[in-house]
Amino acid sequence: HVTTWCDNGERALEAFAAAQLEYELLLLDLNMPLMNGTDLLDAIADLIGASRIPPTIIMTGLGAKRQTDQLRDENHVTAVLRKPFTMPVLRESIRSAVARAPLRVHS
Question: What is the DSSP code (8-state) at residue 60?
Fold first, then answer.
């Protein structure tokens, strides 16, 4: 797998727009500089349509379960990881999110 690292939400949107649907998974922080994770997902939905957003994991320091459930329900989010988390938890979240995604063929 190839990864793209961006230091803020605006650069992440630019990278996504340039690649279109080449991404199998989005791993975002809720509180990124310049554009937060939910604003980025909204911008991606505007760009390609909400139904075409790749599986998305949002990382957050929010502690309230109600807030993280709301993220999952309202923002095209596949999973929410509350910080701190371990690498095994991250790996399993990625594996699970990608396994649930429909197969996409890229030319």
Answer: E
Query: Where do we find the tokens 């690649």?
Result: 19
Q: Pick the range with the lowest mean pLDDT from 37-46, 50-59, 98-107.
A: 98-107
Cα–Cα distance measured from residue 100 to residue 55, given in angstroms and rounded to the nearest whole number: 8
Strand order in the sheet with 56-60: 26-29, 56-60, 79-82
Please say whether the beta carbons of 54 and 21 come within 8 A: yes
Q: State the helix-helix crossing angle for 9-19 and 37-48, rounded to 10 degrees.
A: 20
76: number of Cβ within 10 Å: 21
> What DSSP state is assigned to residue 94?
H
Cα–Cα distance for residue pair 96/80, rounded to 1 Å: 12
pTM: 0.81
* 93: amino acid identity, one letter: S
Q: Do the beta carbons of residue 51 and residue 21 sit within 8 Å?
A: no
